[in-house]
Every structure is written in C-alpha cells, then in structure tokens.
Amino acid sequence: MKNIAIIGASGYTGAQITSLINAEANLSIQGLYVSENSLDKGKPLSELYPIYSHISLCLNPLTDDAKHTIVATVDAVVLATDHAVSLHLAAWFYQQGVTVFDLSGAYRFQDLAQYPKWYGFTHEYPEALAEAVYGLAEWNAAKIINSKLIAVPGCYPTASLMALKPITHLLTDTFPVINAVSGVTGAGRKAQLQTSFCEVSLTPYGVLGHRHQPEIVTQLGQEVIFTPHLGNFKRGILATITVKLKLDTSASDISQAFECYSASELVTVKQNQFPKVDDVVLTPNCHIGWKYDEATGYLVIASAIDNLMKGAASQALQCIKIHFDALQNT
Ligand SMILES: NC(=O)C1=CN([C@@H]2O[C@H](COP(=O)(O)OP(=O)(O)OC[C@H]3O[C@@H](n4cnc5c(N)ncnc54)[C@H](OP(=O)(O)O)[C@@H]3O)[C@@H](O)[C@H]2O)C=CC1
Ligand SMILES: CC(=O)N[C@@H](CCC(=O)OP(=O)(O)O)C(=O)O
Predict the structure, then answer these.
(1) What confidence score (pLDDT) does residue 191 get?
(2) Same domain, 184 and 271
(3) In terms of CB atoms within 10 Å, which of 64, 98, 250, 301 comes out highest?
(4) What is the structure's pLDDT at 330?
C-alpha cells in the first residue's frame, strides 16, 4: 500500500486524481490539501464536487505543520498546483526525500533558460530539476521508475506527442502543423473572464507563442507549428496534425510505426478513421486516427484525449503505478 498526499485537490485536476487514487486498492490518500488561506479549507471535497459524494475527505490547509506531517507519513505527493506554486513545493518535498508527481510545467524543461521566457520565473532549483523526468507514460517508463521527481506532461503535448513520436523517423524538414482544440477545464477552475460561459466561443489563442510549443519541440526533437484553440465544451482535446513524410514512405510504414502501441490497453490507432472527443472523455484513453496520401507524402493524424485524464490525472496515475509497481518487484 502506498500513501499519497494530494495538493491542490480542490482544482479540476486535483479532484480528478483524488477520485482515481481513491478507487485504487493499492493506494491510499494521506490527505487533501489547498493553500493555507484557501476559501475552501475545511470543506469536504464532496461539497465542491457532489459527484464525489462517496469520498469522505476534507480539504486541509497546507500549513508548515501539515507539510512536515506529510513528509513523515507519505510515499509520494501529487502536486495539482499552478507552475509557480509547484516550483517551490516540488523542490521542498524532493529535498525531504518524498517522491513528487507534479502536474504543472515547473519541471518539464531541463534547460533553465526556458523558464523565464515561458513561465515568467527563474528556476531556483537546478538540483531538483536535474532529477526530474518527463512523465509521458508510454515513452518514458524506465526513467519514471528511477526518478523521485516526475514532471507529468501538459495536455496538448500529450495529445501531440502520442501521435508524433511513433513516426519521428519518417518526418522531413517540413514542420508538422498541429491544430488542437481544448475544452474549457484546460484553463483550471478559478474564475477568469475569457473562460466564463458567455465569452467562450471557438477561437485560436496563444498563436505562435504558447508554452506547449517548446515542450513539444523538446520532447520530439523537431520544430513544430502549434496552434491551440478554446472550444465551447468542458473536457477533451482533439489535436489534428498535418505532416509531410519522407519520399517513398508507404502506408504500411506508418502502420508499422504505430505498432509501438499494440500492447497498450489505453491507446487505440485506426487508419482512415478519426476519433471524436466524446469517445475519450472521462477515460484514460488516447485515440489516434490517420490517413495518408502516398502521392503527395502528406499524412493527417488526429489524436483525442481527455485533458483532465490522459492530459493530467490519469497520466499521473500511470506514472505512479509504473514507479511503485516496479519498486515493489525489486
Ligand atoms: N486543467 C488541465 O486540463 C490541466 C492542468 N495542468 C496543470 O495542473 C495544475 C493544476 O491545474 P488545474 O487543476 O487546472 O488548476 P485549478 O486552478 O483548477 O486548481 C489549482 C489548485 O491549487 C490550489 N492551490 C493554489 N495555491 C496553492 C498553494 N499555495 N498551496 C496549495 N494549494 C494551492 C487551489 O486551491 P486554493 O486556491 O483554494 O488554495 C486548487 O486546489 C496546473 O499547473 C496546470 O497547469 C496540466 C495538464 C492539464
Ligand atoms: C484551455 C487552456 O487554457 N488550456 C491550458 C493548458 C492546460 C495544461 O495542459 O496545463 P499545463 O499548463 O500544465 O501545461 C492553456 O492553454 O494554458
């Protein structure tokens, strides 16, 4: 049995991972935490989310005493907090010897120079950062097993990388073009004008300047053009990606490349059939569909995930299981 504290549990990803961990026989929840002065401290999680009425846990303020109790009693912490909050909490828990699964972007780049540009802070913890590994579960299991600081990928990078990583050897110098639409929960639970009901209408945002572009490029090892869109639905991401493949690539080369997922229960790949967001919402699955024009060398791939599940909480759970199941066998 592994005991896990969840920090940021009142937020969308925090509540989602609470429900996932609560359903696991080999995991127990040490406690749920919000900020020290949170308006929600002391409330039952089920008051915020009646759908979780079967979970009888309250939201505790993350005081210094609470942090020390966590260190003394847990095997791991999940940080479902903003990047600037995770930056300090992840380093602190890591320095105390606690394994950290961080859902934010604060530890996804090894290159310190990226943080001021994309996250607006200077990274103060190079030692913890050096230990951090990128938690794209299907692609990084060996590193996830051996690290005590796992940086769970962003939602758009997850959808994009799951589609593109199998075919990196077939790509040309022409940049893949990624157009992705996310549901509004991608922006988190706190009130913001641009995500309020009357304001949301399908539109691109962060054009040629979204922080997930360099995250995708770093993990793919190839430049891409990435354009996110906000859609008027709650959950889910659909990334539709156009790529130019090397001369003489055949459809069967592509089928063969996607065979890398044949043993995965969570990833489905189909030729000439495209996924819908509704097929993956509330699931940990990634559905990929592709169509190839051999005459021009253009391939279109669509990748669908639930941003709060494979894009955050269920991917974090995959990482937790990979990490602890492997340790159990040693
Ligand atoms: N939403 C999504 O689809 C995805 C989000 N992510 C990342 O996951 C993280 C969480 O996102 P999301 O769930 O959407 O965010 P939310 O805004 O919905 O939730 C943030 C949570 O953090 C808590 N919190 C804020 N400050 C502190 C603090 N100082 N100490 C402890 N808890 C604090 C908040 O509660 P309170 O303010 O009351 O204290 C709340 O519980 C972010 O880094 C986000 O970028 C990653 C992938 C997908
Ligand atoms: C719709 C929406 O606003 N989505 C978020 C992405 C959420 C995510 O993946 O989180 P990370 O910030 O942890 O990478 C955005 O574009 O900022």
Answers:
(1) 84
(2) yes
(3) 301
(4) 47
155 catalytic residue (yes or no):
yes
Claim to verify: residue 6 and residue 107 sit in the same structural domain: yes
What is the spatial distance between Cα 175 and Cα 171, in angstroms, rounded to a whole number? 9
Q: Count of H helices and E strands in the chain?
A: 11, 14
| Long-range Cβ pairs for the range 109-113 (8 Å, 24+) | 109/214, 109/215, 109/218, 111/218
Using a 6 Å cutoff on CB, does residue 236 contact ligand 2?
Answer: no
DSSP-derived secondary structure for 68-131: HHHHHH-SEEEE-S-HHHHHHHHHHHHHTT-EEEE-SSTTS-S-TTHHHHHHSS----HHHHHH
- State which of 92, 103, 158 you would mutate to test the pocket of ligand 1, scoring each by most atoms of that ligand within 8 A of its C-beta: 103
Amino acid at 264: S
Measured from the Cα of 187, ligand 1's closest atom is 1
Please identify every stretch of the chain with a pLDDT value under 50, giving residue numbers as ranges: 330
Is residue 138 in some structural domain?
A: no
Ligand 1 first shell, C-beta below 6 A = 7-14, 33-35, 38-40, 62, 80-83, 85, 103-104, 154-155, 185-186, 188-190, 307-308, 311-312
* 89 Cα nearest atom in ligand 1: 30
Spot the catalytic one: 58, 155, 198, 260: 155
Q: Are 127 and 10 found together in one domain?
A: yes
| Closest residue to atom 10 of ligand 2, CA basis | 154
The residue segments making up the domain with residue 101 are 2-131
Query: Is position 318 within any domain?
Result: no
On whether both 166 and 116 belong to a single domain, the answer is no
pTM across the whole model: 0.97
Residue 327 within any structural domain of the chain: no
